[in-house]
Each structure stands twice: as C-alpha cells, then as structure tokens.
Amino acid sequence: MNMQEIRAIAKTYGIKTGKLTKMKLVQAIQLEEGNFDCFATACSGECDQTNCSWRKDCFAAAKKMVA
User: Fold this and answer.
1) In which domain, by residue range, is 47 found?
2) Which domain of life does this protein belong to (predicted)?
3) What's the rounded mean pLDDT across residues 6-25?
4) pLDDT, tens digit (0-9, with 9 covering 90-100), for 32-54
5) How many domains would you assign to the chain?
6) Residue 2 pLDDT > 80, yes or no?
7) Which three-class secondary structure string do you get for the chain?
8) Are the C-beta atoms of 29 and 13 separated by less than 8 Å?
9) Cα–Cα separations (whole angstroms), residue 9 to 12, 30, 62
C-alpha cells in the first residue's frame, strides 16, 4: 500500500499524518483498529495475526528493517 492510501485511511480515524513514517502511521492505525501496533516487527517472518490487513506490507517492511 502506498503512503497516499495509508494517509487516507489514517484520516478516516482522525489521525494527523504530519511527518509520520509509514511504520509509525500504520502502527497508529492498528491501535485505532483495536489491534496491536506491531507493524514491521515480524523480523522472524512469523506472525499470529492472520486477519491483519497490513500483513503483506508488514512482512516486507520487517524484512527491510533486518537487512
């Protein structure tokens, strides 16, 4: 998902996007959704949050963080 799409989702939750990174912005959205703010923390490639809408992007971001 690109930043424009993420910012649009954030605005629906009343989150001010400002200069937040993708990771911080998605984590803020996760909290508003009532989930863990764990985006990009699945460094081992494992996650038990199978219904998370950020799952695919999360794994990709976590992989970049390790590299």
Assistant:
1) 3-66
2) Bacteria
3) 95
4) 998 899 999 988 888 888 888 89
5) 1
6) yes
7) CCHHHHHHHHHHCCCCCCCCCHHHHHHHHHHHCCCCCCCCCCCCCCCCCCCCCCHHHHHHHHHHHHC
8) yes
9) 5, 11, 21
